[in-house]
Batch of 3 targets.
Target 1
Amino acid sequence: MAMTPTKSLLTAGSVIALVAACDQTDLSREAGVYPDQVEFGAATANNMAFHTGEKQYVIDLAQRFSREVPDMVNFAFNSTALDSEARTILLKQANFIRQFPEVRFRVYGHTDLVGSSAYNQRLGLRRAQAVVNFLVSQGISRSRLEAMVSYGETRPVIDTPNRERRNRRTVTEVSGFVADAPLILNGKYAEVIFREYVDSASRPHDADGTAGLTGLTD
């Protein structure tokens, strides 16, 4: 039986509703686990990223970053100031980021649940911007850093309406690769991810197995 225009529209609407239902995200997850928005062509781009290896290597590098470097700094109440502990952590982040000029990073700002949502959104973003500005002061190109997203009070570490330092934080994450980097244009993502490991393995080793000490004198 031929499908009427009305039935066709209803069928299309049902498909769209089904897809939308399957695309619900778990807001309890940490910042950046899911994309912030889905745009036209995102599915194709995602598929290509998996086939070229880019997607997996972004995940691999993100995991390496979280293993080797503290990715979170905390703030005083209603403040964007970076204390000595935060600066120490960000220096470690900067050292890691400098090793990978082909990689982009994103900083997410968060607050505790005290205050209005609108104010906390602005405060979270300002915290992310403070971190980006510090990393830029350490020689990182601003074009590789994003402070465009603030989750404000919506993703607390500790679910409490009271002041909570652990909720007042920024989280730095790997967000992707610089599109025009030579190695990336050649699809050599693995060379970026494992560069330091390969370099350390190729350095001269002493009899005790230590690397990079050959030629040093007292």
Target 2
Amino acid sequence: MFDSLSRYSPQALGLLRIVTALIFILHGTQKLFGFPAAPASGLPAAFTLFWFGAIIETFGGLALLLGFLTRPVAFLLAGEMAVAYWMFHAPRSLYPTLNGGDAAILYCFIFLYLVTAGAGAWSIDGSRSKA
């Protein structure tokens, strides 16, 4: 029964990419614009590590949402999430549920999957490869 579902893999991959990107973009816009709410620590000062992270999250997330340059963008975002985890979460505790880093780990591995799998359905990358 489940074998017949494999024909929907491109669409499932596209949905994973789109939903992940939509949620990820909010992490960047929160830090850049205070939307949907400003972080508890306030907006980061321009040209700081947090500010550059917010730029990467917002515009990298937008590129992923559109499926534009998915593999290189996903590689960059996976690296950002690995750095975020090891610099800011892991020093607090060994356990992700205690250090607040579980989302960073999940994003990192979803982005690594997108590096290998590509954009899936409904992407600029897909439409460019058909031309």
Target 3
Amino acid sequence: MSKIYRRTTLLTGVNAIKKDKNRKRNVIMNFRVSPVEKQLIDERITLSGLLRSEYFINSCLEQEIHVTGNIKTFDAIKKRMELIDKHLCNISMSEELDFEILESLRTVLELLDHLYGSNE
């Protein structure tokens, strides 16, 4: 009778290695690209001298946002502005401002600036 190979995580009585939940960056994000896009991204990462994760974070957070206005965009902005308005109405001191709400407001303002700035 032959044995079937099983990963150690599937064996009974073996505890899986637990990852540190207190890490600052414990969320994984994935996206798909074509082979050509992957090659171009890898070249840019190599030229930047940054770690792969740092490159993606900087690339996503520090780039300009180009907006094409449509009904979906305006609905998303409207919903976010309603949330921001509700938060601002419920606070009494500036120390109570939520960082995520302020970041949302900054993003919405950037979107609107690019949206209306491109029409001038």
